[in-house]
Amino acid sequence: MIKGNVSSKGERIYHLPGIRWYTQTRISPHKGERWFCSESQARTAGWRKAHTN
After folding, report:
1. Grouped pLDDT means (10 residues each) for the chain, 53 residues
2. Torsion over CA of 36, 40, 44 and 45, rounded to 10 degrees?
């Protein structure tokens, strides 16, 4: 499952399993955050991939 969260700056960012901050990222639907089944689904919805550095 791919986590889509909204940053403090309002950016919509998705996190893949195994990358930095994935386990710490919490999804809050009331903030507009959500889960995705694929990267293409996240990108199509207008979310960007989290930076991995």
Report:
1. 96 95 94 97 97 78
2. 10
